[in-house]
Amino acid sequence: MCIKSVLQLKEAIKTLAKSNEEFARSCPSDDQWKTLEYSMPFLEKIYNISVGLSADKRPTIQDVIPELYSLHQELLAQQNHKDKATRISIKMLISELQERYPLNGAEQLINCYANFLDPRYKGLHLIEYKKIDDIKEALLTQEKAKKKEKLPITSSKIDNESNPNTKVNHHELLKKRLKQDISARSASTTTKLSLEIEHYLGAETADEKTNVLEWWKIMKLQYPILSDYAQKYLCITASSATSERVFSTAGNVVTARRTTLAIENVEKIVYIKENIKKIKINL
User: How much is the average pLDDT of 143-170?
Assistant: First the structure.
């Protein structure tokens, strides 16, 4: 961080300012140095949060709410800071965070899903915003919608239209439909999902250092439906940093001297550049 580097050179800068009046005019005053030092802890936290949520080798979206919540709590604890300039900066940061991320990111449904499906949190941060029951209901609603899409059509009208000359045994048809209805009720995926959710919430919370994807891979047999939703939501990145890095790579490939490269070749070069480190080459 730039401010951290400046603070590390504080004594050298102050010494230089004593011997150079022109340089001294552009240097921070003693009060400004104090403000920088007071601001450093929470500015460093913001930096670390940004770096953490920009990672591309692990799930990140589930950490949005916890990280913003933690930052918000730390800022609230310092809002009556003894230094006036620092106090003003903290209040401005709190206001900006609340405007950009209402409810510390819990207003976004995707963040809530991910937080709920992380076995380290299990929606812990959603309790304060009374969102956990909404997420459970939303997951059950999604499962019901999926089931409706998969339901086969078994009406007698369709059967008659497909073969109008066939004599229909209505008694057998009713028995068949009754059997299908009982089978559907007994194997209701929404009921299974509801049981999975209750068991998942009742089980022990995973350790803080747990690899979330590995955890769901191991627990897939125990939570087959819920694990599908974990795979769906935990693969979403918290920021666009990864795609921006790819665009940056493409910008280094397609330069003023390489404007005639075919699109297919650009794609291949970028792909190789982004993945070459993952390939183990034995020379």
Answer: 59
